[in-house]
Amino acid sequence: MNDDMNTSISFDHDLPDEDAQRLEEVLASALARDTGDKRLPLDRVLALCAEAGLAEYLELFLGRRIFTRMRDQNEFRLLQLVRHLYANRIPSEGTVSELFQLTPSEARGLIRSLRARYRFDIADALEATAKRTLERLAFNKADSSYRVNIPEGTLVEHFRYLLEREGGTFPPPEKKERTTGVWLFSRESANVLRKRYGLPEFTEADEK
């Protein structure tokens, strides 16, 4: 049996300064903001996008993915971005809105449909995103709760689902008033979720 072919591809592409600045904002900055990782150079970010685009084209050329609806194509395109650009993590609704030229509600719907249609493909991505979010929880005395920014609303639905599976006795996260994406967790709910992901539980000492 022949080994799989390993192909290396590289090319140059000229970008006007205005386009480069815009891509720095909607790609490089958004990627760092959504993942919490160190910001990557734009050329590296574009190379990852190229990998995602090539994967999409190969599926089309090989006859394995032929879409007749734009929504179906967008779902698969987002899946490739999750795999290649986001390293198996789910981008925020705001980023999806920017990249796909969608309204916030349309972006939220696209992420939901991605989770439904490709739930097995993105299972690792959802788990990695959830764990990363729970790692960032921090107690806030003013709110008397553990708080974290969650720009991707479907992740909140995931946390609610996990808490309901524990018997429905743990309070779901609540959105902080007059904020765009700050969510509050009780210590009990935070600990149930963190225990599931192998994270240390909070104690009274964390609230001093």
Q: Which features characterize this protein?
A:
alpha+beta, 8 helices, 54% helix
Strand order of the largest sheet: 1-2-4-3
- Rg is 19 Å
Estimate what percentage of residues fall within beta strands. Answer: 5-15%
Q: Count of helices?
A: 8
Largest sheet: 4 strands, antiparallel
Mean pLDDT rating: 91
Q: Distance between termini?
A: 63 Å
Helical content stands at 40-55%
State the low-pLDDT regions, or none: none
- What is the number of domains? 2
Number of strands: 4
Q: Could you spell the SSE succession in H and E letters?
A: HHHHHHEEHEEH
Structural class: alpha+beta
* Shape, per Cα inertia axes: globular
How would you describe what is shown here?
The chain is α+β, with helices and mostly antiparallel strands. It has two domains: 17-121, no CATH class; 130-207, no CATH class. Helix content is 54%, strand content 7%. The protein has eight helices and four strands; from the N terminus they run ααααααββαββα. The chain has a four-stranded antiparallel sheet with strand order 1-2-4-3. A hairpin with a 4-residue loop joins strand 1 and strand 2. Helix 2 crosses helix 3 and helix 4 (93-100) crosses helix 5 (104-117). It is globular. It starts with 16 loop residues before the first helix and ends in a 12-residue tail after the last helix. The relative contact order is 0.09. The mean pLDDT is 91.
